[in-house]
From TrEMBL:
<dbReference type="InterPro" id="IPR018060">
    <property type="entry name" value="HTH_AraC"/>
</dbReference>
<keyword id="KW-0804">Transcription</keyword>
<protein>
    <submittedName>
        <fullName>AraC family transcriptional regulator</fullName>
    </submittedName>
</protein>
<dbReference type="Pfam" id="PF12833">
    <property type="entry name" value="HTH_18"/>
</dbReference>
<dbReference type="Pfam" id="PF02311">
    <property type="entry name" value="AraC_binding"/>
</dbReference>
<dbReference type="InterPro" id="IPR037923">
    <property type="entry name" value="HTH-like"/>
</dbReference>
<dbReference type="InterPro" id="IPR009057">
    <property type="entry name" value="Homeodomain-like_sf"/>
</dbReference>
<dbReference type="GO" id="GO:0003700">
    <property type="term" value="F:DNA-binding transcription factor activity"/>
</dbReference>
<keyword id="KW-0238">DNA-binding</keyword>
<dbReference type="InterPro" id="IPR003313">
    <property type="entry name" value="AraC-bd"/>
</dbReference>
<keyword id="KW-0805">Transcription regulation</keyword>
<dbReference type="GO" id="GO:0043565">
    <property type="term" value="F:sequence-specific DNA binding"/>
</dbReference>
<dbReference type="InterPro" id="IPR018062">
    <property type="entry name" value="HTH_AraC-typ_CS"/>
</dbReference>
<feature type="domain" description="HTH araC/xylS-type">
    <location>
        <begin position="174"/>
        <end position="272"/>
    </location>
</feature>
Length: 276
């Protein structure tokens, strides 16, 4: 298991490949992670051990983990144009103000094949073209920029919003969650957020329990406490100012919530982190 912010990448090669009619090939570089983004055209991909080939068309993204064997074929009338990104991927954790030893990641937790639609497809197409134009071997500054683009793609692919109905209750849950993340310092009622999305408070609670294992109220408290910890560690703001910055009306209410969260008062937490 891993979290997205623990991922590190190193790109080995970025290639825009325009195929010819009757083109056939196999996946040669099986020691790395690979993305194949289909800009245009059609064809088929067949993975080793599978009996049925995958139909390939514009707007599809294929992810191949290390070790996966695959054969590829382009159609006669509409040859494929593909951006291929070959990269290394590791997990690099930072815990208790210390870096842990990197661990090579065997497989990313994303599907082998995705059909991307609408604006998401346009954005991905543009991102892969930018990577093609920017990547150069052994130019660290350029490669760092391209790695940043790849990390943005990975973040998008790991987002639960990627595959959901934009008008369904699951997406309403995502919008409410994002609102809490962006407006944690504001005062608002959970019920008002639910009504604005046309769902009941009880159903919203079920969605939060399903996806996050906490209620909407507890999730908001988590966000506020995470920001409060950083205010205490990285600023010298007094506690009453931190309270207001984290959505609490007074210092007492904030200190009570923080003590329940951290097992100690805000001032004790600040002192402890200063001594480490």
């Amino acid at each position: 298991m891993y979290t997205v912010d623990d991922l590190s990448v190193r790109i080995d090669w970025v290639l825009l490949k325009t195929t010819e009619p009757f083109w056939q090939d196999i996946r040669h570089n099986r020691s790395v992670h690979s993305f194949y983004w289909i800009h245009k055209g059609s064809g088929t991909f067949l993975c080793a051990g599978e009996n049925e080939a995958h139909a390939v068309q514009k707007g599809m993204l294929f992810y191949m983990e290390p070790g996966l064997s695959m054969s590829m074929e382009s159609s006669v009338d509409d040859p494929l144009q593909i951006t291929m990104v070959l990269f290394q991927c590791s997990i690099t954790c930072y815990e208790n103000q210390q870096w842990k030893m990197p661990q090579q990641l065997a497989r990313l937790n994303i599907p082998f094949k995705q059909q991307v639609l609408g604006q998401d497809a346009l954005d991905l197409d543009d991102a892969f073209r930018q990577m093609v134009h920017s990547w150069l071997p052994d130019i660290p500054e350029r490669n760092l920029y391209v790695c940043g683009t790849l990390m943005q793609i990975l973040a998008k692919l790991h987002s639960p919003e990627q595959v959901q109905d934009p008008e369904g209750p699951e997406q309403a849950f995502q919008r409410i969650k994002r609102y809490m993340q962006q407006h944690y310092e504001s005062t608002f009622r959970i019920g008002d957020l639910a009504r604005s999305e046309g769902i009941s408070v009880s159903y919203l609670r079920k969605l939060f329990i399903k996806h996050l294992s906490v209620s909407p109220k507890d999730y908001l408290i988590q966000i506020r406490m995470q920001h409060a910890e950083r205010y205490l560690i990285f600023t010298r703001l007094p506690v009453h100012a931190i309270a207001r910055s984290c959505g609490y009306r007074d210092e007492f209410q904030f200190s009570k919530a923080f003590s329940k969260h951290a097992g100690q008062s805000p001032l004790k937490f600040r002192k402890q982190t200063e001594e480490q």
